[in-house]
Amino acid sequence: MTHNKYSNLTRRGLLKSTAALAMQRVSIPMATSLGLMADAAAQSANDYKALVCIFLYGANDHYNTVIPYDVATHTNYYNIRKGTPTAGTVYDGIAIGRNALSATALSTALSDGRQMALNPEMSALQNLFENKRASILMNVGPLVVPTSRLQYDNKSVPLPPKLFSHNDQQAYWQSSFQTEGGAKGWGGRAADLLLSNNSKSTLTCISINGNALFLSGQNAISYQMSSTGATTINAIKGKSLFGSANCAAALQTLITQQSSLPMASDYTTVTKRALDTYDGIVAAIGATASASMNALFPSSATNSLSAQLKMVARMIEQQATFGMKRQVFMVGIGGFDLHDFLATQHPPLLQKLSSAMKEFDDAMTSLGKGSQVTAFTASDFGRTLTSNGDGSDHGWGSHHFVMGGAVNGGKFLGTAPEIGLTHNQQVGSGRLLPSTAVDQLGAELAAWFGVSATDVKTVLPNAKNFDLYKLGLFKE
Amino acid sequence: MTAATIVELESQHTASEASPLAVLGLSGTALLTACGGGGEGSTSTTLAAPPDNSLANNLAFTDAARFLRQASWGGTSQEIKDLASTGPQIWLNGQFNAPQGQTLTRWLIEKGFNDASTSNNVNGDGGWVQAIWWKLFSATDLFRQRAALALSELFVVSQLGLPFSWRNFAIANYWEILETNALGNFRTLLESVTLSSAMGTYLNMKGNQKYDAKTGRSPDENYAREVMQLFTIGLYQLNIDGTLQLDSQGKPIESYDNSDTQGLARVFTGWNTATGTDATGELANAAYRHGLPMMLNANLHSPEEKKFLGVTIPAGTPGVESLKIALDTLFNHKNTAPFISKQLIQRLVTSNPSPAYVARVANLFINNGKGVRGDMKAVWSAILVDTEARQVNAPASFGKLSEPMVRLLQWGHTFRATSTDGAWTLGYTDADTSLGQMPMRSPSVFNFFRPGYVPPNTQVASQNLVAPEFQILTEPTVVGYVNYMAGTVNNARNIKADYSTEKALATDPAALVAHLNLCLASGALTPANQSLIVNAITSISAATETGLLNRIYAAVLMVMSSTDYLIQR
After folding, report:
1. What are B125-130's contacts with CB under 8 Å, separation 24+?
2. What is the pLDDT of residues A91-130, one digit of tens each?
3. For residue A183, what pLDDT is reported?
4. Under an 8 A CB cutoff, do B216 and A80 touch?
5. In chain B, N or C terminus with fewer CB closer than 10 Å?
6. The whole model's pTM is what?
7. Residue from A254, A281, A433 to probe the interface with B (highest B Cβ count within 10 Å)
8. Interacting residues of A385 by C-beta distance below 8 A, sequence separation 6+
């Protein structure tokens, strides 16, 4: 192995990647030869990439996010979802009238000519789509193997366990083959392969939204940050606890000491990590967001997702200072489990999602990282097409957004389903049977990120069951 | 103190766990004086050889303190002393017979939160947030409240999912259901929760209707799914000891499938907000109705056959009878005893109970010894007096990370904290830059953390243990907790401690620390850590009142930040 200036590059990490490259049989949109790989490793900060997972907790109602717009299909959708109108909203039952969709209708049609619109609250995301900064992946969800309706009904193929259970499906989406209790996520596993390129490997995977299974790998840990900034223990930073420097020092000794008890030891590990990383983070990104950063996220005071993405942006802005090449971020918002109150509660959530995503994309462009960061939405599952009166119930396949300058934008990816209750791409009540697996989405995200076709099978253990690299998520 | 000395003392501690005296680092006499509640604090810190009877007393005190951490919000030194002489069961029996205090609803009305002319009363949360802190900090039926809090983490309702008016009164009523039934029967608790206004909205049973062929509208499945998954039988078939039953291929067996969910969903149809108005005129209609169980509209109840879990409710069975059959089925399911018992053990005692411990408790759930199933008093007693809960010299895998809100309440109880203006204004404490947890405000119906959570890349994980409370332990919250407590223990907030006992001890740092070690940490501070804290606070001059108080604040904060305290064993 040649010596190079990236002293953190481990022999193991480099050999793993190069051996994998030698065996790959498919071309991926990134350097593919041994020489190019070494060159890529020796490149400057231009070779930075980040994935950002935007998790919508509670299972987003996709039928009211990406909505049929051509008259025939919309009528279908409307007749199934209509009911008692909710005053002061555009909702009739849980259906949105066609007139309300004209402003957010998408100019590109589906391959079969059907037209779609976004929810009326999502003009910002519509703008991204029309400017080819975002695409929509239709009917994606967890599968173990490609599954037909007949196979589902007969249970003749393995299915993801505990479908329709929130916590299990959140875990399954994030880990790709484990339900609740699973300890590793595919974001973390992808990061494992690439974190040796990072000077501060602790900061490879960062969550602004609490403990994230998605980001946990073998070596990659899910490092948490608050959306308000890096935090430390004030008494230790100020070297004074109730006026006493001795007590501040004693506190620090007390909380950073080793213990033989596993829980105590693990608790202390988190404490030490928080204390040890604080100075470096504050030195790099500042104690508060800069005025220019605040200006890029005007809704962050009232939109938690915007505030979280602002923190992600602050970290990305300083990736060179941190010496980072590859990072995976996770943000999220909850409240999507709308069995009731869909007409009043869903619109503000989608408005927040849409505006935060636009703010983030604009910020990335402003930072000169517009093609180096790819964001994607994810959720527990989709929902039923049928209504229960004022809400929808748990589903399976869903529609999700992929966003960034490297993305093949302005497109409908995957296979758009019919709108109905009797077709074979649904399993009752319009719950979609996914036509694209999370593994297929993950494989293309991972490939762009730098994971080889061989390594992708450890990152996404069920990926081997699927046709990979066919979605066309990224530009050539 | 040099690093070498600390390491030495550490290894002494781990090698000599059998000696509570070494743990306490004090002579028996000094300890008794410090925790007797009266008399001067001892000025002696000599490690004298203890007589045998004081050794036994020390064990009794630390066990009493440990018990009170499990069953209450810790104990004051007087409570510890009393319990050491009576033992846990007598304490529990007294607690089982303790009268219920004033309800949250009554408190809200007294404080004027029923006034409809204030829009925040109608649409806001100020009322319940103050009321819940009032109740948890000041109620004297300690075990009932501790049990109610544990149950609120199983039968989860969160303010975050209650988008309606007069929310204060819905949450007040829900707490009343938990505290009224916490020491009663599980079957009654299950039914009261099911028909509550808060749960009815939270999990969407309210307004759920039978199938409509014209529109294709089907009964919503949320309550049916969650009542099985989270409140009674869980996802997988269980043995009596809480371990998973496995099929012939060694795989877990799902306890219900989607057809069970759909069948059960038909049961939970036709129910909606009660009607009726407050005869006393105190409460607006919506507020009043939050205090009543939901009512059935028979026309909206499903007339179809309802099949679930091997039970078939014939078509045409009315709503009330269907509900009874469904709840009886869940109550009597063989999973329910171990599923509930294990989680309640996890809330109070330890994250990784042995299967045998779970089985002992589950068997008392099944039959309290007098032929009654679901007797919660029997279950709680079984959990708390079990040899596994009461063990000393526990293995390293025993215990749990204490919950942040329980730590706050322990501070409040130990130091007799009270709200100076009677408003109990702590507000929300769940920001990750704050305490990191708030009662009745879990992020979802899955509680703040899952019973099976395994923190990745940890010793806990490598030892095949679970540690639920670690799910809310993050870099921000580990720091936020210390900062929050630093701004709490110094009486800077609306709820302030009475440190008069501690002020009497504070001129003797060793006595103060011994007292805090017992009352807060149930004696678990290592000798090295006790010395560390003693030496540190000694450097604060005791010449002034401020100095004395700063010694106390610093000592309390250091104890409550130490993993000796945080990991409750």
Report:
1. B125/B159, B125/B167, B125/B168, B126/B168, B127/B168, B127/B169, B127/B172, B128/B104, B128/B159, B128/B167, B128/B168, B128/B171, B128/B172, B128/B440, B129/B426, B129/B427, B129/B428, B130/B423, B130/B424, B130/B425
2. 999 999 999 999 999 999 999 999 999 999 999 999 999 9
3. 75
4. yes
5. N
6. 0.90
7. A254
8. A63, A77, A80, A81, A392, A419, A420, A421, A426, A429, A430, A431
